[in-house]
Write a structure and sequence with these properties.
Length: 175
């Protein structure tokens, strides 16, 4: 088993030779998801098998990792496990992509070589939620912790809301 993955691959050549890639890639090397991460430590475990199904060159396998995303409510770390099954049909044209079997996603190759990191990063991006946030109400819990930790906040005088008169007018119907 290769622990070191190649940086550049030839997907069609690997499919013809029934190639196999197994190893790990550092999360810190994935530049397109860097802004979504709270911490870029860790690695992505990759198992990809190249082959052909009839005339269709394909990639099948699995990508696994645990990413530390930024919670969009509290901006703290959110542990997000990913176990993505990869089923890609290697195509050169959009017409070929449209003719793929339903259970395959297209991998459009315009040149003979491509970065393996791009394939892995594409699969990870498809697995990420649009709005990552904790299951619990973290924003409320985070603000409650701030209130209990700072007793100086309670000693400040409560200011009167300048718009409170509008609330009373609305209730009486004089508005």
């Amino acid at each position: 088993m290769l622990n070191r993955l190649p940086e550049i691959i030839e997907p069609l050549h690997l499919a013809d030779k029934r190639g196999e890639l197994k190893g790990q890639i550092a999360v810190s090397s994935l530049q397109r998801i860097a802004d979504l991460l709270f911490d870029d430590s860790g690695s992505v475990t990759v198992e990809l098998f190249f082959g052909r199904e009839g005339r269709l060159p394909k990639i099948e396998g699995r990508i696994q990792t645990v990413l530390q995303l930024k919670c969009q409510s509290c901006l703290q770390a959110l542990e997000f496990p990913i176990d993505s099954v990869v089923k890609l049909g290697i195509v050169k044209t959009v017409d070929q992509a449209n003719r793929l079997p339903e259970d395959y996603e297209p991998l459009l190759v315009e040149e003979d070589t491509m970065l393996l990191r791009d394939v892995i990063e594409d699969e990870l991006l498809l697995s990420l939620p649009a709005y990552p946030k904790h299951q619990h109400s973290c924003f409320v819990a985070h603000s409650d912790n701030n209130k209990t930790n700072s007793p100086a906040q309670d000693s400040q005088p409560v200011r009167e809301n300048p718009f409170s008169i509008l609330a009373t007018l609305k209730k009486t119907g004089d508005l």
